[in-house]
């Protein structure tokens, strides 16, 4: 059974592994291999520990757990783009350990994000997703998100990749 709770400093090593391995699994064949190969779990964990020790910022970090094991991670907070609207939140990231994808942890974690974002006063939630990530597009659609027409290009080792903005109302 999957439970969700607020991330602690003790979860950071597991979260870094989930994030890096999640990127490498989800974006294989989409993001250049050189970019994915350069990702490092230990370096990611160190950056997160520094951020955590500095007091973080306005980001909420949640972890999905199965017993004592961290199986997923999500981060959300205020929307980072225009317009600067305190009622618009952004899902910055959601990753499930690759060997646990498809077992319900993602749905449980997304439900918790939506609930907590609403508790923070966000009326809507946005996210950016790579246009070629069909699995993520399906996941977000099932979670109630839809494209809102905005897109952007992000560079990965000199390769431009298109991202779509998805949004959902939380009311």
Short structural summary:
It contains 5 helices and 7 strands, in the order βαααβββαβαββ. With 171 residues, the protein is an alpha+beta fold.
How does the SSE layout of this entry go?
Elements: E1 3-6, H1 12-26, H2 33-37, H3 41-53, E2 60-66, E3 69-78, E4 88-96, H4 105-119, E5 124-130, H5 134-142, E6 146-156, E7 159-169
Helix pairs in contact: 1-3
Describe this structure in words.
The protein has 171 residues and is of the alpha+beta class. The chain has one domain (3-126): 3-Layer(aba) Sandwich (Aminopeptidase). It is 33% helix and 35% strand. It has a seven-stranded mixed β-sheet with strand order 1-2-3-4-5-7-6. The longest helix has 15 residues, at 12-26. It is globular, with a radius of gyration of 15 Å. The two termini are 27 Å apart. The mean pLDDT is 94.
The mean pLDDT is: 94
How much helix is in the residues?
25-40%
In CATH, the homologous superfamily goes by the name Gcn5-related N-acetyltransferase (GNAT)
Uncertain residue ranges: none
Keywords:
171 residues; alpha+beta; Aminopeptidase
């Amino acid at each position: 059974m999957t439970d969700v709770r607020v991330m602690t400093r003790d979860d950071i090593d597991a979260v870094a592994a989930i994030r890096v391995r999640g990127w490498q699994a989800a974006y294989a064949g989409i993001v250049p291999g050189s970019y994915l190969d350069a990702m490092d779990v230990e370096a990611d964990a160190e950056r997160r520990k520094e951020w955590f020790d500095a007091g973080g910022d306005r980001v909420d970090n949640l972890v999905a757990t199965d017993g004592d094991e961290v199986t997923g991670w999500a981060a959300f907070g205020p929307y980072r783009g225009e317009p600067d609207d305190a009622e618009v939140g952004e899902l910055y990231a959601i990753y499930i350990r690759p060997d646990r994808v498809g077992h319900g942890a993602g749905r449980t974690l997304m439900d918790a994000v939506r609930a907590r974002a609403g508790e923070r006063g966000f009326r809507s939630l946005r996210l950016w997703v790579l246009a070629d990530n069909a699995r993520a597009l399906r996941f977000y659609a099932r979670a109630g998100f839809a494209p809102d027409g905005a897109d952007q290009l992000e560079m990965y080792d000199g390769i431009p990749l298109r991202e779509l903005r998805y949004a959902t109302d939380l009311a």
